[in-house]
Design goal:
single chain, Rhopdopsin 7-helix transmembrane proteins, 15 helices, 4 strands, globular, mainly alpha
Length: 407
């Protein structure tokens, strides 16, 4: 623990109060967003683990919500750090807070990349190998261990670093202490290397997101266009897209095209929460959906499994679009952080004083805000999650109303 003399503390308190007033708008915003993110992710965990049929994507989203929930809890040490600012003399809480933050944010980031791969396999290769539910546990454990190893360096690279503080109008400076990366000469190279490593990991995830979702969007547009053409020509009953193909070899495109399309009435009657088609559902001619698909593959001389034929269902499309938006928000949240952390600190060699500004503090907290936005996106794109939240709010309102009437 760093010690500061009482006289200097009094002067530093004045500077600290001034900085606190300057950062107060951001502190208030973080308190509000932290509460919203905590409640939103808590509801998302309950919904995706108890109210939704379990698939690999659903399990991964549930794990993502757990990581995001922990990130929202870590808003508390961030708020304390900004409130104390130049009087932060406790190095152990400093190290622990940033270690925990990097660990959970790294886990959230990598899980998002795995979800993109899962969506790509589901949409673009419906008959290929997929991430199964029993794989999710191993994948998540591996990500958690990797995130721990990645974040452990913060116990060495973060500390209560000295910062020059202007305490009055005569330009007198005192040394305060602020929780940030260590700037000693022998720490410059390791800190730069780890910052670049963080950037490369996020870049790899970003490239994965771009490649996967670009291919997904291209495939969706291609198949939707084909579906629209065939539905217009045969507006009722079941349309077998595979019958329109002129090749005996089922390519990736033909595999997607072999999915059975139901008419509007039948799709409305189907439960929207199902992510796997009912193996015993029957069409107008008394034949099951699996029979239709089996006949299609036999015509092409193939015996593909129908386990993943739901890839182009409305639920799968909606889930994919939802996670695409989550990925876009993720990208937007990390850009300001790396601009400050790498460009300003490593390239321009700015000091700790630079980090005490309102805009820079906001940029440094953007990766945390990503965990707040995710449950809001779930609520917007998932009508069942939205209805679940509405029912809970309605029930809470009724309980409060009854208690008020009893009083």
């Amino acid at each position: 623990m760093v010690t500061v003399s009482e006289d200097d503390k009094q002067l530093l308190r004045e500077a600290q109060s001034k900085l606190f007033r300057n950062l107060l708008p951001l502190i208030v915003i973080l308190i509000i967003l932290g509460l919203v993110g905590f409640l939103g992710n808590l509801l998302a965990i309950i919904f995706y683990f108890t109210k939704t049929k379990r698939t690999s994507a659903v399990m991964l989203i549930g794990c993502l919500a757990i990581a995001d929930l922990i990130v929202c809890v870590l808003f508390i040490p961030n708020i304390v750090e900004m409130s104390v600012n130049v009087l932060y003399t406790e190095n152990i809480p400093c190290k622990l807070a940033h270690f925990s933050g990097l660990w959970t944010i790294a886990v959230s980031c990598i899980i998002l990349g795995v979800i993109a791969i899962d969506r790509h396999r589901k949409i673009c290769s419906p008959f290929g190998k997929h991430i199964e539910i029993h794989h999710v546990k191993r994948i998540v454990i591996g990500i958690v261990v990797f995130g721990f190893c990645l974040a452990f360096r913060d116990f060495f690279t973060f500390d209560t670093a000295p910062v020059e503080v202007k305490v009055n109008d005569d330009s007198r400076n005192l040394t305060g202490y602020y929780c940030t990366t260590r700037d000693e000469k022998h720490y410059e190279v390791p800190v730069t290397i780890f910052s670049v490593l963080d950037f490369l990991i996020v870049l790899i995830v970003l490239v994965t997101l771009i490649i996967c979702y670009s291919h997904i969007i291209f495939t969706l547009f291609k198949v939707i266009k084909k579906e629209k053409t065939l539905v217009e020509s045969k507006p009722t009953g079941l349309v077998n897209i595979a019958s329109c193909t002129d090749s005996h070899d089922i390519t990736e495109e033909n595999q997607l095209s072999s999915i059975v399309i139901q008419d509007d009435k039948e799709s409305k009657a189907t439960s929207p929460e199902k992510t796997v088609p009912d193996e015993h559902s029957v069409d107008h001619d008394g034949h099951s959906d699996n029979d239709q698909l089996e006949n299609t593959t036999k015509q092409h001389g193939k015996h593909s499994s129908t386990k993943h034929t739901n890839a182009m269902s409305a639920v799968e499309k909606n889930l994919t679009i939802m996670m695409f938006v989550v990925s876009v928000v993720f990208t937007a949240c990390f850009i300001p952080y790396f601009v400050v952390k790498i460009l300003m600190r490593s390239v321009l060699q700015t000091g700790e004083e630079f980090e005490l500004g309102l805009g820079v503090q906001f940029a440094l907290r953007f990766p945390y805000l990503n965990s707040v936005f995710n449950p809001i996106i779930y609520c917007y794109f998932n009508p069942h999650f939205r209805d679940y939240v509405k029912e809970l709010l309605k029930g809470l309102f009724l309980v409060c109303r009854r208690r008020r009437m009893n009083i």
